[in-house]
Design a protein that fits this description.
GO terms for molecular function: nicotianamine synthase activity. By secondary structure, the chain is of the alpha/beta class. It has two domains: about 90 residues, no CATH class; about 200 residues, Rossmann fold. Helix content is about 35%, strand content about 15%. It contains eight helices and eight strands. It has an eight-stranded mixed β-sheet with strand order 3-2-1-4-5-7-6-8, with helices on one face. It is globular, with a radius of gyration of 19 Å. The termini are far apart.
């Protein structure tokens, strides 16, 4: 059983002690330094199996994920407030220290999504993002750079986060017509989930295994057959920053592929399809070659059917979770301290 004798585990446990003793996780020089050390420690490839950790280190990992989630939400809120001071906030997204990482992650997820759509299929008409937070950069980048005709519905449990996010979008004549915000617990959203072609699940929505499993079971119950689920996960030592989602966790879904980045983009991306029992027999014998991107991808299966949902609903002014996407966002310039 891997435990504190591993130099990396020892370093992470030492950083946890320092981070957990901070008076605040709001962006400042001390928070920046410690969280940057943590992220840099977790980025290099390391053959750690977090499921094999001793109970003490498992507890440290669970608490670290929560602390990182809190710090990430505070960082996003800080920059969302700053961006909101501009007349056209979306023209200034690059002031966020890790905006380029969002550009990379959004391009990666768009490419993965495209691989699993039928040949010559039209782009998804409606996409939901669960846990978008006060700075919903994934939705904004995908909407602006990759899916110019798609409607994005962002769900978050935090009304204040949604209000900040909405303020960024309203001055933009295009995105204000296509990017919507809904406040509430995703477990209370039922039939509306069946209207989306694609659902993104942010990494920090469901920080413990049981909670994540309940959320994915809920999505499996109410998403439309053939709809795509994009789940943020983590691999190796990066699992000290984010929860891990395994293919076996995808009950009610057909696992399609998983991508493990090897660069500064922290999150792995798991792609699955809501099962359509009527088509199971037809797809059971299908086999495709494993896709290879810029990291490691495992097992690609059949693409989704060509279902499209075009009906729109009036947006609800709601916030999403301060659970954003990538742990490297936890760093901030000393100027902002």
């Amino acid at each position: 059983m891997v435990c504190q004798e591993d130099p990396l585990i020892k370093t992470i446990c030492q950083l946890y002690v320092k981070i957990s003793s901070l008076e605040t996780l709001s962006p400042c020089k001390e928070v920046n330094a410690l969280l940057t050390q943590l992220v840099h420690a977790c980025i290099p490839p390391h053959p750690v199996d977090v499921s094999a950790l001793c109970s003490k280190v498992q507890d440290v990992r669970a608490k670290l994920i929560r602390l990182c989630g809190q710090a990430e939400g505070l960082l996003e809120a800080h920059y969302s407030t700053l961006l909101g001071s501009f007349d056209r906030p979306l023209d200034h997204l690059s002031i966020f220290p890790y905006y380029t990482n969002y550009i990379k992650l959004a391009k990666l997820e768009f490419d993965l999504l495209t691989q699993h759509l039928p040949p010559h299929a039209t782009p998804p008409a409606r996409i939901a993002f669960v846990g978008s937070g006060p700075l919903p950069l994934t939705s904004l980048v995908l909407a602006a750079n990759h899916l110019p005709a798609t409607a994005f519905h962002n769900y978050d449990i935090d009304a204040a986060a949604n209000s900040m996010a909405l303020g960024l979008v309203l001055p933009d004549p295009d995105l204000s017509r296509r990017v919507f915000f809904h406040t509430g617990d995703i477990m209370d959203v039922t039939t509306e989930l069946g209207r989306y072609d694609v659902v993104f699940l942010a990494a920090l929505v469901g920080m413990v295994e049981e909670e994540k499993a309940r959320i994915m079971d809920h999505l499996a119950e109410f998403m439309a057959p053939g709809a795509i689920l994009m789940v943020r996960s983590a691999n190796g030592a990066r699992a000290f920053l984010y929860p891990v989602v395994e293919p076996d966790d995808l009950r009610g879904f057909e696992f399609l592929s998983v991508y493990h980045p090897t660069d500064e983009v922290i999150n792995s991306v798991v792609v699955a399809k809501k099962k359509n029992h009527e088509l199971d027999t037809l797809s059971a014998t299908a086999a495709n070659a494993d896709p290879v991107l810029n990291g490691s991808v495992v097992k690609k299966q059949q693409p989704i059917s060509g279902r499209k949902c075009c009906e729109m609903v009036q947006p609800l002014l709601d916030p999403l979770n301060p659970y954003g996407n990538i742990a490297e966002e936890l760093a901030i310039d000393d100027k902002s301290s």
